[in-house]
Design brief:
Length: 440
């Protein structure tokens, strides 16, 4: 094995990993990160042994080196660029967090003012894009509309498609963060047959989104500042989360040189799944299905029955084997929103709280370290705000666009970036002769 190659941004450990296979011993360099598990670099494994690794679902595989987000699943820690998520949710705002994810540090006063203004000036979308929406049935799932609308931005913004131009990469990042709320609100308005509401440059990011969602041309609409603050906090909590399925999808798509709008559309597609970002919508459907606290024991029995294929949606996580720190913040935000709206007796909240209490004391969930995740409470907040459940994952996508584009930019800024091309364990047919159809 060649001498340990020191990577500029990760320290080569004094340790080495050794593999003995087929009578051959191969050593691999170990790299230590700033925090979290170390890795051993197996990029030369195939050349040295003719073997691939096999790690279906990537349970033990680091796909990249990143400086953006750190998660300690056992301790229930989540940090963006070193800042704890609960501190950012309490003290920052979504655009400031977007700046942090993109640039690595919090902005100073002048940088914050310039960034906020830049994003504001990109919130409108091309008028022609309105016609794309008109091609969809009104009853379309808004995630289908979003996947199409995000990719279609590449048809309009030709001056930010060159992924090899740093300035164009930055411009597409601004456009995506700015336009996703507009596209999302338009998807909602289209679904309810109301006219699109234009962004207002004198509004904050979350306030503008809620205004585009709920204002009409017929009368003045004022966004409740408590709800705007709650929405902004929710966007912060959902902004990034290391190499989750949708972020890995964005990185995979971007590794081929695809334009950032197409990559975001790929991320939206992956996020849509109920095991991932679609879980918030699934949680509300589950709570509605349970219907009453007295039906919880029967539902829990169903969840424990492997043949039922029923899962406790909003619970469990590939990384968190402790309480998701975002769920803790969402729980308190939920109480603030319900109190503000006079809905503290929301029936679904009662079911959710009792479900959580039972699950956190039940051996089945405790032994599998299944705790509430980010999706368990978010849907109840959205519902209380009057947002329909089909829009929940759209809101997740609006927030996660900041993380997706920051991760994409980090990958594109890396001179060592190459196309991601995994291999496989082939278990298909051996070579066989073609048989004409009349003889089969
Ligand atoms: C998000 O990756 C991210 O960072 C994602 C995310 C982000 O911000 O990007 O955090 C957002 O996607 C949050 C997760 C939202 N999904 C859900 O709430 C759907 C319900 N949860 C699960 O389907 C599940 O917990 C996953 C998909 C989240 C994680 O699954 P894993 O890590 O592959 O775990 P597993 O399926 O192998 O489960 C381990 C055991 C199994 O039981 P046994 O086979 O050991 O007997 O736990 C059981 C599972 O059956 N289990 C559950 C369960 N989740 C796991 N049983 C009941 N209900 C559940 N929710």
């Amino acid at each position: 094995m060649a001498a340990q190659e020191k990577k500029a941004s990760s320290a080569a450990s004094t340790r080495q990993a050794t593999l003995a296979v087929d009578g051959k011993t191969v050593t691999f360099p170990v790299y230590d990160g700033v925090e979290g598990p170390s890795v051993f670099d197996i990029s030369k494994l195939y050349a040295e042994t003719g073997l691939f690794t096999f790690d279906s679902g990537f349970m033990s595989t680091a796909s990249c080196e990143s400086k953006i987000t750190f998660i300690d699943g056992d301790a229930g820690i989540l940090r963006y660029r070193g800042y704890d998520i609960d501190m950012l949710a309490e003290k920052s705002d979504f655009l400031e967090v977007s700046y942090l994810l993109l640039n690595g540090d919090l902005p100073n006063v002048a940088q914050k003012k310039e960034f906020d203004r830049t994003i504001t000036l990109h919130t409108m979308i091309h008028e022609q894009l309105h016609f794309l929406y008109r091609g969809f049935p009104r009853a379309s799932h808004p995630m289908a509309v979003m996947a199409g609308a995000a990719a279609s931005l590449a048809a309009f913004y030709h001056d930010s498609l060159d992924v090899n131009d740093v300035a164009q990469r930055e411009l597409s990042a601004f456009r995506l963060i700015a336009k996703m709320p507009t596209l999302a609100a338009m998807a909602y308005k289209y679904s309810v047959g109301q006219p699109f509401i234009y962004p207002q440059n004198d509004m904050g990011f979350a306030e503008n989104f809620l205004n585009m969602m709920f204002a009409t041309p017929c009368e003045k609409y004022t966004v409740n500042p408590v709800l705007a603050r709650a929405m902004d906090k929710i966007l912060i909590l959902h902004a990034d989360h290391e190499q989750n399925a949708s972020t890995s999808t964005v990185r995979m798509a971007g590794s081929s040189g695809a334009n950032p709008f197409a990559c975001m559309s790929a991320g939206i597609a992956s996020l849509w799944g109920p095991a991932h970002g679609g879980a918030n919508e699934a949680v509300i459907n589950m709570l509605r299905e349970i219907g009453d606290v007295k039906h919880i024991p029967e539902f829990i029995t169903k969840v424990k029955d492997k043949n039922s294929n029923v899962r406790l949606m909003g619970f469990g996580h590939r990384v968190y084997k402790n309480y998701d720190p975002r769920a803790k913040v969402l729980r308190s935000t939920l109480e603030e929103v319900l109190a503000e709206l006079g809905k503290i007796d929301e029936p679904l909240l009662k079911i959710a709280i009792e479900l959580e209490r039972i699950a956190l004391s039940d051996e089945y969930f405790v032994s599998r370290k299944l705790y509430p995740n980010v999706d368990f409470y978010s849907g109840i907040i959205y519902r209380a705000m009057g947002i329909p459940s089909k829009m929940f994952t759209v809101l997740f996508a609006v927030a996660r666009t900041a993380g997706w584009i920051a991760q994409w930019k980090e990958m594109m800024d890396d001179p060592k970036n190459k196309i991601a091309r995994p291999r496989q364990l082939f278990t298909g047919s051996q070579p066989r002769p073609f048989v004409p159809v009349e003889k089969r």
